Amino acid sequence: MNQQLVLRVIAKLLIPFILVFALYVQFHGDFGPGGGFQAGVTLAAAMIFYALIFGLATARRNVPDRLLEGMIAGGVLLYGGVGVAGMLLGGNFLDYFVLDADPVVGQHRGIFWVEAGVALTVSSVMLKLFYLFADRANHSGADVQNDLNRPEGGA
Amino acid sequence: MMVVTVVALARSRNLFAVVVLFGAYSFLMATVLVALDAVDVAMTEAAVGAGISTVLFLGALHLCRSEEAKPAHRPLIPLALASGVGALLVYGSLGLPAFSDPTAPIHTHVAPRYLNEGPKETGVPNVVTAVLASYRGYDTFGETTVVFTAGIGVIALLRRRNKNKAEQS
Amino acid sequence: MSTLAGYFSYAVTIFLLVAGLFIIIARGNLIKKMVGLGIFQTSVYLLYIAPGKLVGGTAPIIAPGFHVYSNPLPHVLILTAIVVGVATLALGLALAVRIHEAYGSIEEDEILEQDNADAGSKERGG
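Predict the joint structure of the above. Result:
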């Protein structure tokens, strides 16, 4: 798909906005619709779009597998870590009231970190799934998806 | 319109068409969810159903054959079974409260507490986020773990063979 | 008439559920079955979300000027269900891909035939 000029230009135009929108959804999720799940899938969708247009190899160079696997585990650990932090500070598991002197601020802080953990795990799992399926396709049926594998020539 | 899409889905034997129709169906479902005031859910459904699962389906289709075999026998027994289940469900739904009934049990138990106390206790006006991350934090933790486990499962299923292939070649 | 409209959402839900169930049982193709499961799943989303809606209400984001909100609890449950759904769907598709590699087919009948043939040859051999 490397030769599709229109697709490439449109993708280059759109992807930054999708990424920014994902971050907006993540951090504005307290006040508007949004949250960790939505931000995670939007991020992953943006990266999948990128990989479809610019090639799997390019995407893999930008977001390497090792980083993704770390993020998959890191998100769950972050979520669990917030729970354990609540325990260490004298509350129950996943008890956010103790995270700050002011219980409401503590709640807010807890929700923020928990959502961050969710977004990490969800986005990295979705992207990893895509990598695995696409990689599989490259190994077995190489003719159709040859374009996906070819590294980008120019930039 | 959703009903038409589903009927076309059930009849079509070209799996590629089925997958694209499923994406369209997901978008229709997302609009219905917006109409039902579930904006968070609609957002997720649009991104997941129409975006990611369609891509995954296409990836899997590329690895398999994209034409479905003709069924060997007429689907009479499944049809009978499905309509039997449908009839039972219709019978059951007659006992459910009518649409948008404010006195239904769903609106009288925990929901008012979430709506009234949630913003005060957590400082987060989006009640869905507050319930998701705070009141039901255990559920969400378990659910994140499920996503994690499913990811690990797919990695285990799809990656090991690649290494074998690399060793063979 | 109002009672009929009151049960319309249930009717749609039940139709989708029955259609999904029919696809799962009647079709032998594993990917088609997965699509059927997806439809079945979305019918459950509707079953949860529709009763939470109140006519004249708005999305459950607290803001001044609104007093009637939809029920947030089903939204939370279904939000997690969607993401878990796509994760398990990917797992199912991965299994289908592996089955296709092992048997060269994702049709249930052909897989069962191959299994039977394998079992028969083993019995004759042993």
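Chain C touches chain B through 82 residues (CB under 8 Å).
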